[in-house]
From TrEMBL:
CDD domains named in the record: CUB, PDGF
Name under which the protein is recorded: Platelet-derived growth factor C
The keyword Secreted is annotated on this UniProt entry: yes
Pfam families documented for this protein: CUB, PDGF
GO biological process, one term: positive regulation of cell division
Gene name of the record: LOC113057995
């Protein structure tokens, strides 16, 4: 009877179990999609495995409207292991610049062979991916950093070994820059500039006096005098007096010698056939001495990855040589004294390869 009763059930009643299963499956799919959508919107967290180490990765975008602070987790206590955090600071206006100042309480895992390989904090320009600096250890607090545009990235990385304390704390602030005066940021005090920026600025001066004026415009003469004041040094239980005197070592002369002799016109021997591109003639002497730029450019701008010693003043000079050519029809050689025009470099300078192209 029950079997017969089941067969007499209306068709829509027989479909109820199937409809319930379909509805439950749809709800599960919707919940999964909603959860996935939530994660993609907030970019809150993700995990990845590299070299067997699981990294917990946060990426945060901060809109900078004034002063603020960001720091390593648990600062000033020991930060966690296996962590990667990226902060992207974005100024509210295109003309604004962001300045970063590190708290004196700074300590991460020490470097290995002078390189921050394991735990470090890094500052990067988002446009072009230029790394402004990477720091670790606790011996030196990073100097102030200023963005070139209205964004800047700070990246913190720790591995699975030797977390340290106190970590780091960075105060960020806005530097307003008027579009009509883009050079305004160039007058930033020397002590606020990064090591690379200050090194680039100092390298452009010709004398010690110019360097000191740039570093301390208001008291550079006092600083110059201080450099040559007598000093006392301790050796064991005794003291001895060491006096620096002007003229013993002329730093201006040392700097000028580098400029004059690193990249200079020098004697080079050139093959006349190759130089003149004459495959139909023979010259004697076959080679001559000419002045060509030579030397190295180790102290070129740090922004240039391929610095070359290139001519800045060129002159053409005539040289008398014997030229031999086969006569038409193969009847001996034609011998003539002729003047050949060769290029001489009279002045040279270190320039980037892209600038010389």
């Amino acid at each position: 009877m029950l079997s017969a009763y089941k067969h007499r059930q209306p068709p829509f009643i027989q479909m109820i179990p199937l409809l319930l299963l379909t509805l439950i499956s749809s709800l599960h799919q919707h919940e999964s999609v909603a959860e996935s959508s939530h994660i993609s919107k907030i970019h809150y967290a993700s995990t990845k495995q590299q070299n067997g180490v699981h990294e917990f990765h946060h990426e945060k975008v901060l809109s900078v409207t004034g002063d603020g602070i960001l720091q390593s987790p648990d600062f000033p206590n020991t930060y966690p292991r296996n962590t990667v955090i990226v902060w992207r600071l974005v100024a509210v206006t295109e003309s604004s610049r962001i300045q970063l100042t590190f708290d004196p309480r700074f300590g991460l895992e020490d470097a290995e062979d002078g390189i921050c390989k394991y735990d470090y904090v890094e500052v990067e320009e988002p446009v072009g991916g230029i790394v402004l600096g990477r720091w670790c250890g606790s011996e030196m607090v990073p100097g102030p950093q200023v963005s070139k545009g209205n964004q800047i990235l700070i990246r913190f990385v720790s591995d699975e070994y030797f977390p340290s304390d106190p970590g780091f704390c960075i105060r960020y602030s806005l530097l307003q820059q008027r579009p009509s005066e883009p050079e305004a940021t160039a007058v930033m005090p020397a002590w606020m500039q990064s090591v690379d920026a200050l090194s680039e600025a100092v390298a452009g001066f010709s004398t010690m006096e110019e360097v000191m004026k740039y570093l301390e415009p208001d008291r550079w003469q006092v600083d110059m005098d201080d450099l040559y004041k007598p000093t006392w040094q301790v050796v064991g239980k005794s003291f001895f007096h060491q006096k620096k005197s002007r003229g013993v070592v002329d730093l201006n002369l040392l700097r000028e010698e580098v400029r004059l002799y690193s990249c200079t016109p020098r004697n080079f021997s050139v093959s006349l056939r190759e130089e003149l591109k004459r495959t139909d003639a023979i010259f004697w002497p076959s080679c001559l001495l000419v002045k060509r730029c030579g030397g190295n450019c180790a102290c070129c701008s740090h922004n240039c990855y391929d610095c070359q010693c290139s001519p800045t003043k060129v002159a053409k000079k005539y040289h008398e040589v014997l030229m031999l050519k086969h006569r038409a029809g193969g009847r001996g050689l034609q011998k003539t004294l002729t003047d050949v025009l060769l290029e001489h470099h009279e002045e040279c300078s270190c320039v980037c390869k892209n600038d010389s192209d």
